[in-house]
Structure formats: structure tokens, C-alpha cells
Amino acid sequence: MTRLLEILISMAIVAVLFVLVGVFLPSSRTITEKVETNRRPAIVFDTLNSLHRFHEWNALALRDPAIRITRSGPDSGVGARLDYESKERSLGKGSWEIIESEPDSRVVYALDTPDRGENKRMTFTLRPTGRGGRNVEISQTYNVDYGWNLLGRYAGMYVRGHVGEDMKIGLAKLTSILAAVPNVDYRAEGVPLTNLGVVELPAENLLSVSAGAIERNNEAIKRSMRSNSEWIKRTMDANDLVAAGPMRIVSTELGRENYTFDVVQPVRRKGSDEANAANGGDEAEAEAEAMAQAPAVDEGELEVEIPEGAPVEYIRTEPGRFAHGEYKGYMAELENVRNAVRAWALTHGHEVTDRPFEFYKNGIDNAFTADGEFEVFWRLRE
Known about the structure:
Blueprint: H1 2-24, E1 28-37, H2 41-48, H3 54-57, H4 59-63, E2 68-72, E3 81-85, E4 93-102, E5 106-112, E6 118-129, E7 135-145, H5 150-155, H6 159-179, E8 193-201, E9 205-215, H7 218-238, E10 241-243, E11 248-254, E12 258-269, H8 272-280, H9 283-292, E13 313-316, E14 320-328, H10 334-347, E15 357-360, H11 363-367, E16 373-379
Antiparallel strand pairs: 1-7, 2-3, 3-4, 4-5, 5-6, 6-7, 8-14, 9-12, 9-13, 10-12, 11-12, 11-15, 14-16, 15-16
């Protein structure tokens, strides 16, 4: 009996100590980890403000590569939500949802996880740093409330070793994927790049000429574009074809001394209206009208006979989704524009493939002036 009484008294003392210590433990915990990157604020913010690349940098996917992730809500910003489910007991089920978003400055996630605590928040704050503010400091802060949940308060003693380590791993992965994004600020004030987004293009019939490596000289490039366009025009005339859209340039490589590209023209069969207009005399006007009228339905593959000696190739493309932007300015700046379109695509969870190309909307001559108008496309991997 005495022995039992001693045990009960010991248990009571332990319980009292547990309560007393728990009462004096913090009712909330805050953990902050920081990292620095040389990527533009727009690139960092857009990556964090969208959940499309979450699985690439967040430690959840690293702890369980088989984790099931479901996205819902808008593509980015407030309301974008990610639900996850893992067979790993330490992960279980949960969600991350963006509840606050301040452009190029701050993104706040509300977390629902199996860990003890309420009002869990993960806040990413961006601050210019380094010489001239060229770098960005990314601060990741985790906040959790335990209230009077004593077990939660005790669990808070280990939150730095658990959540804190995941934050360090995640920030390291984040800076790694950011480093692979072209460092171009596609949203900076004054950048003549507009209407960034994803568009769909149907299957197309193209006539293409490889220009080869042309000296990086405006006149040389212009001559090559014109002469190769003439080869395409001869092939179109020989097959009763008309332009189905603006001429495009498909870039292969822009080196220090040479520019390697293809001249490409989408084509379709000539309709009776266009044939009559051409016979009426104003061939240029008929061709311009033909270019503006893309076929309403896919004509299917064409039978094209290439004239003898013509360096022209007929290509039938597959339909697909493309990162797209519109640009007005000098053709010489198109390399930066292409990189900007690729940067936008990557930060929004898309992977580009194949070669980029541009519609030369107002012709070759204007392309070499400040009045050049272009649409830039880069196919996305499905």
C-alpha cells in the first residue's frame, strides 16, 4: 500500500511539473531562415506566388517523392491552393494556400498540417540587397500558435529542428531552380513586352528555308531574309498557295559573329476569291488580305512540289501550347525578349522546348527600326 501511494505521489508531482513548465513555455513559435539570390525580384516573386513549381523546391516532395499533390484555385496569387497526401506518417494530409500577396515584396501561405498548433503561417518576404540592390534577400518565416495546448507548447521545443530544417532545405532548392531562369525582368516599367501568357496554335503548313549562319550585320541579315523569302514565294506560286499569316523567323543560335536562323512562311491553298483578286491586278493587296485570313479549319497536310534547285522544305507542324508575348522595337533586341518569354514561362511552371520563333508582323524593313512589331512564341512541353 505504501509503495502504491509513493507511485501516485510521484505521478502527481510529475503532472504538476508538466503543467507548471508547460504554462511557462511560449504559446507561439516563430522561425526565420534567409537566403540570397541574384535573380530579379519579379522572377523570385512569381515563382513563390504560384504553386506550379512548389514540388521542385518545397521539402515535402523531397521527403516523399511519391507524395500526391493537387492544385486548385487561380494559377497564382490569393486563393491559389495546394493539397497534399502522403503515406509517410510524419507528413500525412495537409494544404498550403496563398492568403496574402504583395507584388515583388511578400507572399503569405496559410498551412494546414498534422503538426500541433493553430494559425500556421509561412511568409516569404523579398528585400533588395547587395550593391545597388541587385540581389534579393528571401526571408522565410514560420509562425504557429499553441494557445493553452500544453502538448503543443512542448512540441514547439522541437519545431526548429523539424520545420526549420525543412525551410533550409527548401530555400537551398529554391535558389537552385531560380539560378536556371534567365535573369530578365519581364515586368519592369518601360519594358516593351506585353501580353505575356500561354496561347494555343493549331497544326500548320509551313514552307521553310534554312538561312544558315549569317554575319551579325543588319544589312546581311536583311538580305538573307529577303532572298530566302523570295524562294518561298516562288514555291507558293508554283503550288497555288497563299500566306496564312505573317512571315516568321525561327532562331537556332545567336553567336557573337553569326546569327543562324530559318525563314518560315505559313501557307494555305489559294481560294477562288484570292485568285480573282490577283487576276484583277492588285496582287500585293490580295496577298495582304490572304495573310490576314488564316483558315477557319485545318486543311490537313498539303501536297507541295518544291521547284528544282529551291532550298525550300515543306513542314507540317503539330498543334500545341506556346509561351507568348508581344514586342515592339528593334529586331536586335529580340534575344533579350526571347529570354524574357522563357523566364516568364519557367516562373509560371512551364518548360519550353524546341526553338523559339517570331512573327514579323509589319515586314522585314520595319523589323530593323524602332517601329518593328513582333509576336514571340516558344513551344511548351506537354
